[in-house]
What does this fold into?
Amino acid sequence: MSNQVYLQQFKDQLSESITAGVFVKISMGNYQGNEKELKNIYVRLVEIKRTAMLSFTYRYKTRDIIKNFPITEGITLMGNFISNDFRIATLFTTEKEVILEHGKKQLIALREKKVKTAVQPTLAHNKEKKRIIVPAGKTYLQELRISDADGNVFKNAQDKYRQINQYIEILSSLMRELPGEVNNVVDMGSGKGYLTFALYDYLHHVLNQNAKITGLEYREDLVALCNRIAESSGFDKLDFVQGTIADYALESIDLLIALHACDTATDDAIYKGILANAGLIVVAPCCHKQIRREMEKNKSKNEISFLTKYGIFMERQAEMVTDGIRALIMEYFGYKTKVFEFISDAHTPKNVLVVGVKTSGSDTFAKDGDARKAEIKQKILESKAYFGIGYHHLERLFGLDKLY
Ligand SMILES: C[S@@+](CC[C@H](N)C(=O)[O-])C[C@H]1O[C@@H](n2cnc3c(N)ncnc32)[C@H](O)[C@@H]1O
It folds into this structure.
C-alpha cells in the first residue's frame, strides 16, 4: 500500500475513534519541522464550558504550551502534523494503539497493538475537579445563587464557583507562610461577600480554626444582605460593617484582603494592613486611575511617550507602575512581595494579585533594613521621574514623598 493510503487510514481511525467515544490520546514525536525546541505534541479530549475540545500540549525543551481547538479544527491540525512534521504518531484508544511511522526513504509503516488493560477515554478523566468548597448543604452558596438546595452548581454560576475555589486554594497556600493560625481577617470592599463567606467556610469547616472575619463594605444594601446570609448560615464570627476603607478603625489584622477595591481604595487597604502589621496582605487591584491621570499629564514629555500615546499601552503601563510601586512600598515596610496572575483572563481582566508577607526581623530579607529602605526610596523616585508621575497615593498616605 502507498504512503498516502496508510496516512489516510491513520487519519480515518483517529477521527472515527473520537466520534465513537473511544479516543484516549494521541502522541506525536520525532519532530522535523521548523519550530525551535519543539519536541512532542500530545492531544487529549477535554470539556470546556460543556463543549468537547481537543487540547494540544506542545512540549518544548524547557516549557509546555497548551492550546485548545474545536474538534474538527483539531483533527485537521493533527492530520497536517502527522503528514508533514512528526515522524511518529501513536493513537491510543480504549481498545488498541495504532502507530504510524515515517521510515527511511519516505516509507510509512502502520502498526496496531491491542491494549492489555482497558483504558478510559480522556473526557471521563476530565470530570469536574474536586473542589475545596463543596457546595452541598451550604446556605450561603444557595443564597448567593451559586448552587441549588441539593448542592448542584447552577450552569451560569460555574465560573464564579471555580473562581471562589481558586481564591481559596491560593489563600490556603499563602496562609501556610504565616507563623501561626489566622485569628483576624478583614476583607476590604467585600461586595456580595462571595470570597468572604467561602474563606469563613474554609477556615472554620475545613481547617477547624476559629477566625473572626470582618467584611468592610461601602454599600449599605450589600452589608445588610451579607449579614442576613451570615446569620442564616450560622456564621457567628463573621460580620459585615458599613464604611470606607480609609475610615476603618484599626484593629488587629492577621490577614487583609482587598479584591477589586477600585483605584486608590486598594492603596487605602494596603495602608491599613501595613499599619495593623498584618502578617499577610492580599490585594487584586483594579481601575488604576490615579497613576494613569498622573502619567497622562506628562504623556508627551516622558521617556515612553512612543508607547503611552496608545490608550491600551497607557492603561497597561499605568497598571504595572501602580502595582510595582505598591509592591516596593510594601517591601519598604518589611514585606516580601509576589505579583502573579490568579485566574485566566477569560474570566476577568482584573487578574493580578499583589501579595505581601510580613518578614520577621531574623529573615535574611529584613536584614540590612536601612540600606534596603534607601535603595527602595531611590527606586520609587527614579520610577516616578521616568514615568512622569507626580505622586503615588500609597506613597502619599505614608508621607514617603516628603522623605526624599
Ligand atoms: C468590584 S467589587 C468587588 C467585591 C469583592 N471584593 C469581590 O471580589 O467579589 C468592589 C466592592 O468594593 C466596594 N468599595 C470600593 N471602594 C470602597 C471603599 N473605599 N470603601 C469600602 N468599600 C469600597 C464597592 O462598593 C464594591 O462592593
Remarks:
- The mean pLDDT is 89.
